[in-house]
Amino acid sequence: MTVGIWILGDQLWSQQAALKSCDSHQDTPIILIESLDFVRVRPYHRQKLVLVWSAMRHFAAELREAGWSVTYIITEESVEFPLKKWIQDHQITQLRVMIPNDRPFQQLIENLQLPCQLNWLENNHFLWSEPEFQQWSKRRKRLLMEDFYREGRKRFNILMADDQPIGNRWNFDQENRKPPKGKLNPPHPLEFEPDEITQETIEQVKQLSLPLYGKIEPFAWAVTRQQALEVLQNFIEQRLAFFGSYQDAMVTGEQTLWHALLSPYLNLGLLHPFEVIQAAETAYYQNNLPLNSVEGFIRQVLGWREYMHGIYRVMDADYSEHNWFNHTQPLPEFFWDAEKTDMNCLHQALSQVETTGYAHHIQRLMILSNFALIAGISPQEVENWFHAVFIDAYDWVMQTNVIGMGLFADGGILASKPYAASANYINKMSDYCKTCIYNPRIRTGEKACPFNVFYWDFLDRHREKLKSQGRMNLVLSHLDKISENERQMIHQQAENLRSQF
Ligand code: FAD
Ligand code: SF4
């Protein structure tokens, strides 16, 4: 039997299951394939293509150095032809592949009718395997993140003293919502000078004659495991202490504040979630870091990230088609071009995404997807946009975050209420409104902030549906205090705004 290994573009870890299953470096051929076919699906951010391809090329070089025999294919077409040819050329009888994170890709591989046996290896890039998550979810009526997170803390013994959480509380969210008052001085993110491989990849992406999005340079992302480990260390030493307090804050010109900037590397396999969690936990004990920050961060990785992945894997394949509010408005043009909006918060977040492919969680949730939700934009168009423009976007993380958390298009499978907010929230948690042409305090008239217009319009349009969500009753009672006349004006203004998209 001749075993071959196919390493996918987001499985770049020397301990990944398929590599781990083979002892003999010399005798096991490996293939990595860069296919332009995937780039035709949507106009990806140029830096995302550079990141993935450069990281793949660096990983292939590292494997060669470690003694593996590596074939690296760059193809204009689909993966099928080069893969089958390589199987035949190397007389491979069994192809080992670690189960892809993204389900459509797994289906694509299954449909390839390969000329050899296909052996799937359980994906070990997450702490919870798919069968383990299934086991956990089978036992419950509602799949609450908080329950899952607590189970994870106990199971992996993270921030625990016997069977109790350190600090005697599971959750420090109340302490983690500081508005950005006064001058904040967040550390500058670690940046990496593109090496020869990355420069070559940048040139190649520049030459592509396909519709793409965003600025390609300056490109400052890490592209190897070694560099990703430096980003982790930099986060632990310089950012983690304040991560919690300013987790929800947004400040003009400050793209990351104290956020970790780790998702691109976790999602490519350059870092493993467990080492990231352990690094934060160790820093808590050794460096005496504030518990609200350390717990808040561990909650993101051990809780949210694992939970989102688990839910994605156990939901029906049509999860991405959900549209609970029946929203059909096309995505406004300005999502692709920040210059085309005069709403300062959107302008800030969108320009940042154009320049870097990154926005932090609250910008994604409370500016970008909040706007899409309350303006009534089609969830599928929104998901496609997020998937195209973010540096860390993949099918598995997109569906649950955009369809479930951001847009509540699944009707509450994932979130307990829609993350819908007016300008009040943005004005409190950011400095964006100070320099905006709109007034965050008014909801009708020329100067009214569109977030206010759309927010009240959204609540009124979906009043009946929202009544079924217990946690919405308080805001619906505020809606009842607005006169019929004003509500009509709000609807009219919302329609006018939509017609200008
Ligand atoms: P930090 O805020 O520092 O958090 C630390 C880590 O926790 C992140 O690196 C990430 O790995 C993990 N994490 C936190 N929240 C989530 C979550 N909800 N889902 C998954 N992981 C989480 N995350 C992506 O990895 N890719 C995406 O394409 C993506 N799109 C999103 C779209 C929307 C509408 C929303 C609301 C969230 C999205 N997220 C996505 C989740 C989260 O916003 C990003 O993981 C985070 O902003 C990445 O930046 P960071 O590494 O600085 O994160
Ligand atoms: Fe955004 Fe409205 Fe504030 Fe302007 S006033 S920044 S549009 S929330």
UniProtKB/TrEMBL annotation:
InterPro entries: Crypto/Photolyase_FAD-like_sf (IPR036134), PhrB-like (IPR007357), Rossmann-like_a/b/a_fold (IPR014729), UV-DNA_repair_photolyase (IPR052551). Pfam families: DPRP. PANTHER family: SLR1343 PROTEIN. This is Cryptochrome/photolyase family protein. It comes from Limnoraphis robusta CCNP1315.
